[in-house]
């Protein structure tokens, strides 16, 4: 690495470390006074060197967790012990969130889903057990001595992920590190060393012993990163995706020279990229990475392999793949133990992603537009983005026509929204009105009447009160 590049990296790191120095140095002095050492470590050092250090700081120490608690409790604003079983004490001080972990090593046996934690006595022993060399650097405090026994700084400059020891040993200690390799590739836009990729392919099956929750959390971090395509492709190529998200590699449908269709796997990754481009900027309210939208973009076509049919005219069809895909999405996300509300939202977006394609050049009635808005509900903005992202054709004329058609639909929605408050579509008569007008008590008939009035509202738009009452009475008479 050129000397001037190294100096630039070091200067950036020093400026970042000086920013956190008052908190970090104060804490380090307290550990020293108690007879212990403290060092900034791992991702915090890596991010400082990259000039992207945030307010989450990781430390390592030779003090055992009980000793750490004695030191930080009188000093910190808040202390938590969620990770203490794994040697980690968390605390907050002056706006910084700190995690202090005792020198340790983690290893899995062949059947356990939980790592066996053993404490070490030296920082060198701790660093060799870290996942990657770029995370195996430390800065001893308060003297700010840089510790890099595995050339992590060189790998950081080369933007490459290697393991401190052999990748086989590293992934045997914690198989989740294979997922972390894909995640860091996506987050940092780094390449993964060939020997690491080889080990991932050979050891992918070991991931099965890791808890679903830990795997899901790594997958989320990958999908929410700046370059998720890079990490997802690595997961597919190494066989990790076959265990975590098998619907993704299944999109690589075999091509038939007589039955041509779009590459569904590449299309899905492109739709994800395009959905990310439509996300609101981070500095806007509600902006930044949107897990719901990104999952829907990635999974929107997973029903295609099960619904593919070769037609007599040489075409390939995927009839009702959106319905099948919604069910598959719900099943996979449930197995990964996603929150129910997120499962519901992503599945609904997958189910609705083709609805616009019946719009044509604007033939929908106002009733159809109202139903589109009603069915999307609070997901309407995400559905707009997903639908626009789903256009990956290279035919510029076709792409422009689709974009203009959707512009037209959004204008119609805005017009109706202004006239009719589409985001709160309700019948012109509520349940109390229905019971009073018909003289009935609460029960199934009230629900049926409410649904009938809602259908009229969707079909015809708002009605005057007397008109709505007459329509209700007419329906009631037909019920006998």
UniProtKB/TrEMBL annotation:
InterPro entries: Bact_CCA-adding_enz_type3_sf, HD/PDEase_dom, HD_domain, HDIG_dom, NT_sf, PolA_pol_head_dom, PolyA_RNA-bd, tRNA_adenylyltransferase. This is CCA tRNA nucleotidyltransferase. Residues 264-386 form the HD domain. Keywords: Magnesium, Metal-binding, Nucleotide-binding, Nucleotidyltransferase, Transferase, tRNA processing. The keyword Nucleotide-binding applies. It comes from the Bacteria. Signal peptide: none annotated. One of its GO terms (molecular function) is tRNA binding. PROSITE patterns: HD. Gene3D superfamilies: Beta Polymerase, domain 2, cca-adding enzyme, domain 2. Its cofactor is Mg(2+). It is an enzyme of class 2 (transferase). One of its GO terms (biological process) is tRNA processing. Its EC number is 2.7.7.72.
């Amino acid at each position: 690495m050129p000397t001037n590049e190294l100096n630039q990296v070091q200067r950036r790191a020093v400026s970042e470390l000086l920013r956190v120095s008052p908190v970090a140095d104060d804490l380090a002095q307290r550990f020293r006074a108690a007879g212990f050492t403290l060092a900034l470590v791992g991702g915090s050092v890596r991010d400082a060197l990259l000039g992207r250090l945030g307010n989450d700081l990781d430390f390592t120490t030779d003090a055992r967790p009980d000793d750490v608690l004695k030191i930080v409790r009188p000093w910190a604003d808040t202390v938590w012990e969620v990770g203490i079983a794994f040697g980690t004490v968390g605390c907050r001080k002056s706006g910084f969130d700190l995690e202090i972990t005792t020198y340790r090593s983690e290893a899995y046996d062949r059947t356990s889903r939980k790592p066996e934690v053993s404490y070490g006595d030296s920082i060198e022993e701790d660093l060799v057990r870290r996942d990657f060399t770029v995370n195996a650097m430390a800065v001893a405090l308060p003297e700010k001595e840089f510790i890099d026994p595995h050339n992590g700084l060189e790998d950081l400059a080369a933007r490459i992920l290697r393991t401190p020891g052999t990748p086989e040993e590293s992934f045997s200690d914690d198989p989740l590190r294979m997922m972390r390799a894909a995640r860091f590739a996506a987050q940092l836009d780094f390449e993964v060393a060939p020997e690491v990729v080889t080990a991932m392919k050979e050891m992918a099956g070991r991931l099965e012993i890791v808890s679903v929750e830990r795997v899901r959390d790594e997958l989320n971090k990958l999908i929410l990163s700046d370059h998720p395509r890079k990490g997802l492709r690595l997961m597919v190529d190494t066989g990790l995706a076959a265990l975590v998200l098998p619907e993704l590699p299944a999109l690589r449908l075999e091509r038939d020279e007589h039955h041509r269709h779009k590459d569904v796997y590449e299309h899905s990754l492109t739709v994800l990229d395009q959905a990310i481009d439509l996300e609101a900027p981070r500095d806007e309210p509600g902006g930044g990475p949107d897990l719901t939208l990104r999952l829907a973009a990635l999974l929107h076509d997973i029903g295609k392999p099960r619904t593919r049919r070769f037609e007599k005219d040489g075409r390939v069809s995927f009839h009702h793949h959106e319905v099948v895909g919604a069910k598959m999405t719900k099943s996979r996300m449930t197995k990964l133990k996603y929150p129910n509300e997120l499962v519901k939202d992503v599945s609904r977006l997958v189910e609705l992603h083709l609805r616009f394609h019946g719009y044509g050049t604007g033939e929908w009635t106002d009733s159809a537009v109202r139903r589109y808005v009603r069915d999307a509900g609070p997901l309407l903005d995400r559905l707009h983005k997903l639908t626009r992202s789903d256009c990956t054709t290279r035919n510029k004329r076709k792409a422009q026509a689709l974009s203009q058609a959707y512009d037209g639909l959004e204008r119609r929605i805005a017009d109706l929204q202004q006239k009719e408050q589409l985001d709160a579509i309700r019948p012109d008569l509520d349940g109390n009105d229905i019971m009073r007008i018909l003289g009935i008590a609460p029960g199934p008939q009230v629900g049926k009447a409410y649904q009938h009035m809602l259908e009229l509202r969707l079909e015809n738009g708002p009605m005057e009160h007397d008109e709505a009452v007459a329509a209700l009475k007419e329906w009631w008479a037909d019920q006998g």
